[in-house]
Amino acid sequence: MTSVELLDLLESNTAMLRNYILDALPKDHSVPEIDLLYKMMRDYPSRPSKCLRPSLSMLACETLGGKIEDMMVTAAALEIFQNWVLIHDDIEDQSEFRRGSPVLQKLHGLPLAINAGDALHAKMWGLLTKNCDVLGDKLAHLIMKEFVKMVDETTEGQHVELGWIEKNRWDLSEDDYFLMVQKKTSWYTCVAPCRLGHLVASRKPISKNDFVRFGIDLGIGFQIRDDILNLTADRRYGKEIAGDIVEGKRTLVLINLLEVAGARDKEIVKAIMKKRKAKSQKDVQKVLEFMKKYGSIDYAKNRAEEFSQSALKQFEQIFGHAPNTKAKIRLRSLVEYMIVRDW
Amino acid sequence: MTSVELLDLLESNTAMLRNYILDALPKDHSVPEIDLLYKMMRDYPSRPSKCLRPSLSMLACETLGGKIEDMMVTAAALEIFQNWVLIHDDIEDQSEFRRGSPVLQKLHGLPLAINAGDALHAKMWGLLTKNCDVLGDKLAHLIMKEFVKMVDETTEGQHVELGWIEKNRWDLSEDDYFLMVQKKTSWYTCVAPCRLGHLVASRKPISKNDFVRFGIDLGIGFQIRDDILNLTADRRYGKEIAGDIVEGKRTLVLINLLEVAGARDKEIVKAIMKKRKAKSQKDVQKVLEFMKKYGSIDYAKNRAEEFSQSALKQFEQIFGHAPNTKAKIRLRSLVEYMIVRDW
């Protein structure tokens, strides 16, 4: 399956999911203020998104013998999770753009944006209660417990990253980075979607460790590539270019640069990064140049490749026994797409 | 029952609930950053609180023949709700103090505080899944739906109020105020606690309208009094004095003032309020003086009294048939306490 074919498939999945989500969210209200809240809740879910996480969960479910219609509520809730988290992330990171448009707090102010994120968060749980009717109470509650664990992991990872920024810390190791990423990214991007697909397919409790190692490695490979894309991709990426440097994100590229750069260059990089949001465009370019000069981008590419290969190996171990259905072929393509995207 | 006896009773309830909640929240973590997140999640729940809402739910449950131990998870979740909402409220309102100490974002910065609120929010749902074991899946599911409705109402009410502040709107009527308060305050403070107590006591679905009118009136009476306390109470209140004027809250007192003040004075008040957070202490005092001069505080007291009397009348209709247990006597005292607190 080529990546063009995969993207076409994702696009049709995405359209279906987007309609489902927008149907599940409140539409309009006679009180203009409340009507605006509904518009804000619908804003991010209406913007273009690849819906990677729900697609992963649906394909994992199908590959393991489950029915796609049993997965709809849960997949939609995964996408709503992504959306409320992004609303709050964009505030926490002081981002400017999201999916090609200004972030919600730029459009409506910070207080309303925090509150809209909370309202969307609650809708996620509201949607999950619908699983009681679709899948029965027992399975619905197991799914909720997976969501509780997922939010726990994500908020912990987010806290670790934000704490480094808050304290202006730059004395970080690769292990610090991997811990942060496995919590902040891997869990909700890979571990939880696969576990949820497995849970719905098997309709009974699953083991604590199922998909955890695979999902963590896949997520780390995915995140490192995302970090690199942020540094190198063009406007189609939908965020500011090198926005991670502006926002002071501790990426593997930057951590490596601070490890390998000569003493004088290292101090220059640190001095720039410590300026926080007061960095100039020239400052950002300077850091980017050092990243190239010291081979830190290539280093991160190689590390990403290691995690990706490990994930692919585990994919074969986990799904190897599953029949070679269309769903399995698509699932493998999606996993490959997540970790071998063009730089 | 005197209000001193009631407060003693609430205090013992509160101590039990606080222990229960702190037991349910994560304690410590070997990674110092994550340990800090846990400390932040435990901060507001550790501060002194009267636990009015869980107390109301427990007493309503007992009065209607339910067991207090069946209500513990739900009551604790109500208090956790209050705590995560306060974390985000304090950011949205740019408050300075909460329960006598600096607000969470003053202690740890805004990004970490938003995230800690989200983590606590998810813990509320995590706790609610425990009801599956205590009360069975069906009842647990109904309780979750009440929580979904409660968060919906609260975020809508919060949005209405924040929207007025964001747009610097002062052309508001009493009806605008009542709509905002019934959503922002009444639902989670009165309607939901009573409905949840009823639900757990009866162990079967309850009617859509149960406790709604009673809870709304009780909540409006409670909120107007809270607004007045904010203007008149001393340091024991735990927030800044007249903090609502500083924060630009549209209280009934202020709405009345803008209705009845002479044209010149009205313009002075509006000009001060439009300064948003840039108001001086003298500005705040000026508004306070006008509120006294034009009788707006007394007006609000009278309106509060009307809602309170209506709530008390409905209390007798709703609970009149219930046996005269200790719980019922305490419940009536609590309801009276909520609406007849000393100015």
Key words describing this protein structure:
homodimer, 343 residues, Farnesyl Diphosphate Synthase, two-stranded antiparallel sheet, 16 helices, globular
Largest interface: A-B, 49 and 48 residues
* Run of helices and strands of chain A: HHHHEEHHHHHHHHHHHH
Report the total helices of chain A. Answer: 16
| Fraction in beta strands of chain A | under 5%
Overall geometry of chain A comes to globular
Number of domains of chain A: 1
CATH fold assignment of chain A: Farnesyl Diphosphate Synthase
- CATH homologous superfamily of chain A? Farnesyl Diphosphate Synthase
Find the count of extended strands of chain A (DSSP E, 2+ residues).
Answer: 2
Main sheet of chain A?
2 strands, antiparallel
Name of the top-level CATH class of chain A = Mainly Alpha
In short:
The structure is a homodimer of 343-residue chains. Chain A has helices at residues 3-24, 32-46, 52-63, 68-92, 104-108, 110-129, 131-135, 137-166, 174-202, 212-232, 243-247, 252-260, 263-273, 281-293, 296-319, 326-339; strands at 97-98, 101-102.
Structural description of this entry:
- 2 copies of one chain form a homodimer.
- With 343 residues, chain A is mostly helical.
- Chain A is built from 16 helices and 2 strands.
- Chain A has helices spanning 3-24, 32-46, 52-63, 68-92, 104-108, 110-129, 131-135, 137-166, 174-202, 212-232, 243-247, 252-260, 263-273, 281-293, 296-319, 326-339, and strands at 97-98, 101-102.
- In chain A, a hairpin with a 2-residue loop joins strand 1 (97-98) and strand 2.
- The longest helix of chain A has 30 residues, at 137-166.
- The model of chain A has no long low-confidence stretch (mean pLDDT 94).
- At the A-B interface, helix 2, helix 4, helix 6 and helix 8 of A face helix 2, helix 4, helix 6 and helix 8 of B.
